[in-house]
Write a structure and sequence with these properties.
There is one protein chain. The longest helix has 22 residues. It contains 22 helices and 20 strands. By secondary structure, it is of the alpha+beta class. It has 3 domains: 55 residues, no CATH class; 81 residues, 2-Layer Sandwich (Ribosomal Protein L30, Chain: A); 355 residues, Beta-lactamase. The termini are far apart. Helix 10 runs antiparallel to helix 21, helix 13 crosses helix 15 and helix 14 packs across helix 20.
């Protein structure tokens, strides 16, 4: 029994020794921190340039005040507070917050203060020897050469616990990209941290670099990005959308590169930099802020596309053989069938597909949709026909996320047959039941990015590349799959026919304001009905017709007819990009759009859901 007791005591001692010397690193950390100070060296974050080489986002040095609680002995707290410009109450509050933060340890560096001004930093450096346990840590602040493109660029914020748990790169007090390109390209932009190892003496005083810096690791800067944006075009499009709610998206068709992407109202990106970031962020997301500027309408806004949807409808009807280029449908100031009427404005009748696009004839597309969805001899049922219709739209980029390289993209909404089966009952609905979707109304919703992408697909005569906001990454390749060509299952000849109809809309139809004397433009208007106020104004267009370099979508909430705001703004964006300036003959259009205000037409609603 005594022998067993001795053995038990021996085992307990062995386990405890193992725990102290091998399994538990607290004492090792304590010993190392007695002898060394490991200072993290933060890398410079990658810069951002626009497609023309203009510097858009750069870095400026900033300094944090760090402290090691165990070493903070004999500090004149009041003198320290005067030096850094805070009160004693603020000092105590920061100490309390620090102790409550995850990973707090008296042995390791803790961040006490952020973003010292140059004046405060200089004053502190002169007196730092008086405050044992404190030192300064160099950081960077993002700076902007242009107060534009905030929704595309994103911003930088302090990491939270979820970020730390997801990626071992991050430690408390680090920063990470938040929203926009800053977030989606974080791994390229952030770079690699370095470390500087300093020796302490028996009193904890720094004695110099350990082994003359042989074990130090320098930081490696993040990679620079070349954005696809034309920052001057972005600025111009944002100016046209002042006092308006909506979006403008312009894409280079042959590459999928986003030339500008405006969400209006927008905000100054410098608001989310420095000590005031938290306060400004709360202001931007406040329920009292009816503009909701952080809600990216270009990417996330789900709108009825209205008649900008008709070019896609024409492609489907032609591909499915429901119509050919000579098929004509009647229009008696609208679609009239079985007691149902969908109104239309006056024009010639009957009318084939190209003039139907030119005049934006509602009746034509209602008849075409009915003749497809109700053709049971071809599809077996309305539900089957509708699924074929929906699948074509998905291939054209509707109903699902396109995969743009900016976070928080919306998917819009394209219903399927099951949606209507659930609502009306299986077999109890037909084309007339849901006829409004044929003209981009009803349950159909799209993002401005999806509308611009459809326009780019038509400009390319039958293919598109996923829209993206980054053109190139320094010393590496673009993410896999982003530049792949995507080809809908619709013959090229039908795209050519639809493009001709859109060209006719500009030369003698609903888009006459976009008829530029030296640039061949093709386009399509949209007037989306809105039960909560004035209708929405929309436009899609591309130019030049034979060698497209820009495809644009404009959506102005409560703007009325597509020709009122959508077409003028879209045509100005096209002209500005192609010519660099607006011709004297069209300056009055520019002045009208710059000064126009549609906000009085708006019905204030609750904050949109992300």
């Amino acid at each position: 029994m005594v022998g067993g007791f001795v053995v038990l005591i021996a085992v307990i001692y062995i386990i405890r020794l193992f725990t102290l010397q091998v399994a538990e690193d607290k004492y090792k950390v304590f010993a190392e921190n007695n002898a060394f100070l490991r200072k993290v060296q933060y890398p410079s974050r990658g810069l951002m340039y626009d497609r023309n080489g203009e510097l858009v986002v750069y870095n400026q040095p900033a300094y944090d005040v760090m402290m090691i609680p165990r070493d903070m002995k004999g500090v004149d707290t009041l003198d320290f507070c005067r030096t850094v410009g805070i009160t004693r109450e603020q000092f105590d509050q920061r100490i309390d917050e620090m102790k409550k933060s995850p990973g707090y340890s008296v042995y390791t560096p803790q961040r006490f203060m952020t973003h010292l001004t140059a004046r405060d930093y200089g004053r502190l450096q002169e007196k730092l020897y008086r405050y044992p346990g404190f030192y300064t840590q160099k950081r960077i602040l993002r700076q902007y050469n242009y107060k534009a493109a905030a929704n595309v660029l994103g911003n930088v914020r302090e990491v939270n616990q979820d970020d730390i748990d997801r990626d071992e790169y991050y430690k408390p007090g680090d920063y990470t990209g938040d929203l926009g390109v800053e977030k989606s390209y974080e791994r390229y932009l952030r770079g690699d941290k370095g470390v500087e190892i300093l020796m302490r003496d028996a009193y904890g005083r720094i004695q110099g670099r350990f082994e003359e810096g042989a074990l130090d690791m320098p930081p490696h800067s993040g990679r620079n990005l070349t954005l696809s944006l034309d920052i001057k075009l972005q600025q111009y499009a944002e100016s046209l959308m002042v006092n308006k709610i909506g979006a403008v998206v312009a894409i280079e068709p042959k590459t999928g590169e986003i030339l500008c992407m405006v969400s209006s109202p927008t905000y100054d990106p410098t608001l989310l930099v420095g000590r005031e970031r938290g306060k400004n962020y709360r202001m931007l997301v406040s329920n009292d802020n009816a503009d909701h500027p952080l809600f990216d309408r270009a990417l996330m806004g789900a709108y009825p596309p209205g008649s900008t949807f008709k070019p896609g409808q024409a492609l489907i009807l032609l591909q499915e053989g429901i119509i050919d280029l000579n098929t004509a449908y009647p229009c008696y100031h609208g679609y009239i069938n079985g007691g149902l009427k969908v109104g239309c404005h006056g024009h010639g009748s009957p009318i084939p597909v190209k003039p139907a696009l030119q005049t934006s004839c509602n009746a034509f597309f209602c008849w075409g949709f009915k003749n497809m969805v109700d053709r049971r001899s071809k599809y077996g049922s309305s539900a089957n026909a509708f699924e074929v219709w929906k699948n074509h739209l998905v291939q054209l980029g509707y109903g699902y996320k396109l995969g743009v390289d900016i976070p928080n993209e919306g998917r819009g909404f394209i219903p399927n047959a099951k949606f209507y089966d659930k609502f009306y009952g299986e077999g109890h609905w037909s084309a007339n039941t849901i006829i409004s979707v044929s003209i981009g109304q009803g349950e159909v919703l799209a993002t401005p990015l999806q509308m611009a992408n459809l326009c780019a697909t038509i400009a390319n005569r039958g293919h598109f590349i996923t829209p993206h906001a980054v053109k190139a990454i320094q010393d590496t390749v673009m993410p896999e799959g982003l530049l792949d060509v995507r080809t809908p299952d619709i013959d090229r000849k039908w795209f050519e026919a639809v493009a001709e109809g859109m060209r006719m809309a500009v030369t003698g139809g609903t888009c006459r304001t976009a008829n530029l004397p030296d640039i061949m433009v093709a386009g399509k208007t949209g007037t989306a009905q809105n039960p909560h106020g004035k209708d929405h104004s929309a436009f899609i267009g591309f130019a030049p017709y034979d060698n497209p370099q820009i495809a644009v979508a404009v959506y102005v909430e409560n703007g009325g007819f597509g020709a009122t705001y959508g077409v003028p703004i879209g045509s100005l964006v096209i002209e500005k990009y192609m010519n660099g300036e607006i011709s004297p003959a069209r300056k009055y259009i520019e002045t009208n759009m710059l000064n126009a205000n549609t906000r009085g037409n708006r019905v204030i609603k609750s904050k949109p859901k992300d």
